[in-house]
Amino acid sequence: MKVTRREFAKSAMSAAAWSAAPSIAHATQPRFFPTGFLWGAATAGHQIEGNDINSDFWLLENIKPTMFSEPVLDGCNSFELWAGDLDLARRIGLNTYRFSLEWSRIEPEPGLFSMAMLDHYKAIVEGCHTRGLKPVVTFSHWTMPLWFAERGNWTNPDSPALFARFCGRAARHLGDGIERALTLNEPNGLVMEKSSLPESVMRAQATMFAEANRVTGSTDFVGGPAFAEAEQMQPNLLKGHRDASSAIRAERSLLPVGFSLAIVDEQAAGEDTAMRDTARERFYGPWLNTAKQDDYIGIQNYTRRRWDAKGALSAPAGARLDQIGNEFYPASLANCARYVHKVTGRPVLVTEHGIANEDDLPRAELIPAALTHLQEAIAEGVPVLGYIHWSLLDNFEWARGYVPKYGLASVDRSTFRRTLKPSATVLGEIAKRNSF
Ligand code: FCB
Questions:
Q1: What is the 55 CA–ligand 1 centroid distance (Å)?
Q2: Please, what's the b/e burial string for 13-50 (b: 16 or more CB within 10 A of its CB; e: otherwise)?
Q3: I want to staple 175 with a disulfide (CB 3.0 to 4.6 A). Which of 37, 171, 212, 410 is the partner?
Q4: pLDDT tens digits, residue range 289-342?
């Protein structure tokens, strides 16, 4: 592990000095997390595997005009190097690995399922067990098979049934070894992101989809970040989650099933909470409602957002911002866990949390600071099942390409060599002790 003693001490010291987490500095007794707590790192197929040439994102990244700053190409070559990724997670001291299935590899044509690809993912599930890692599996992390995109994606009334068929088939093959299933990753994400985007993005998307229709010879192409269709897709996504959950349970009745919610810690800046409450209802309401029927809910949080009577505010003057402009705000994760549990009554699993930063030090500060708050929420009675950090690796961050760095390990883009960062040691030490 490429972490010097000095680097580790430096990260740990600045973590202890972080003013928003006074309880770290004051803690004299070890503070334990619940027994069986999941400590993990997350990845997603398209962002690390490379060469998923049968997916909608691959096409959109490689046509002109495109909304992507660069194409994924080889990713981190994790399709070949997945075993090394698992070794890395284990070396950090984690007990959980979250990864996703690439639907476009498993079902390259409608109704044709590849045994070889199902076996590929089964080997990853088994590889997790060999290394003492619990596999948390996302059945769809945004990418879709090209054929699904050519048929209108989630705007197609058949989409819930098509997704459920895939999930049932995959669960039959893999389900025995999976610890927890997530049907969809951030199905509410586009609606939320769209609310802060200029109209020009919709026009750019329409031009890109027109080109996608031209090259595929279709008329209904919807793929990638389909902001314009975000609201239209919601009812089918909700039904898709419900149908897929039933299909997975029909194969593996004991497997806990949920989905992961994109959530910002929405705060009212003053007395007037109306705008904040409306935003919460619009971004999360339908999904929190459906989560009441699930075994648990995944939450993915990166920051907070403040609202006054007129709308969303920008980060306070002087706030620390990460590489993509998110405010550094360690308390946001625990606040989201409290809110989501209060509304749904379900146990919460942190399926993503992290920070985009070239320099690793803020990540090493954020992890213990956020976990201190999370532990306070647990002590108050919020059932939190685990903490899965985004991400194991610096990877392809969608439209932003390889620029944002979220990894606990960096990746050399030509040799694919992984190098652990000091923050991996910070997380690993907490994970190994299950306490601070
Ligand atoms: C989430 C996505 C994940 C990653 C992080 C930074 O919204 O689920 O794939 O890109 O953001």
A1: 18
A2: eebbebeebeebeeeeeebebeeebbbbbbbbbbbbbb
A3: 171
A4: 999 999 999 999 999 999 999 999 999 999 999 999 999 999 999 999 999 999
Which atom from ligand 1 is nearest to the alpha carbon of 404? 6
Residue nearest to atom 10 of ligand 1 (CA): 397
CB of 365 sitting under 6 A from ligand 1:
no
Contact 299 CB / ligand 1 (< 6 Å): no
Q: What's the gap in Å between 289 CA and the centre of ligand 1?
A: 23
Best residue for ligand 1 mutational test, from 47, 143, 388, 390 (most atoms within 8 Å of Cβ): 390
Say how many Å lie between the CA of residue 397 and the centre of ligand 1: 7
Q: CATH number of the domain at 113, please.
A: 3.20.20.80
Tens of pLDDT along 218-275? 999 999 999 999 999 999 999 999 999 999 999 999 999 999 999 999 999 999 999 9
Q: Please report the pLDDT score of residue 321 as a whole number.
A: 98
How does pLDDT run across 368-390, given as a tens digit for each residue?
999 999 999 999 999 999 999 99
The total domain count for the chain is 1
Percent of the chain at pLDDT > 70 equals 94
Give yes or no for a contact between 280 and 264, defined as CB atoms under 8 angstroms apart. no
Buried b / exposed e along 74-99 (16+ C-beta atoms within 10 A) = bbbbbbebbeebbebbbebbbbbbbb
Pocket-testing residue among 182, 193, 300, ligand 1, by greatest number of atoms within 8 A of Cβ: 300
The answer to whether residue 278 sits within a structural domain is yes
Classify 64 as helix, strand or coil: coil
- Asked whether residue 205 is domain-assigned, the answer is no
User: Which domain, by its residues, includes 297?
Assistant: 5-53+68-197+232-433
Within a domain: 73 = yes
What gap in Å lies between CA 375 and CA 384, rounded to an integer?
Answer: 9
pLDDT tens digit string along 69-112? Answer: 999 999 999 999 999 999 999 999 999 999 999 999 999 999 99
* Domain contains 347: yes
pLDDT at 29: 73
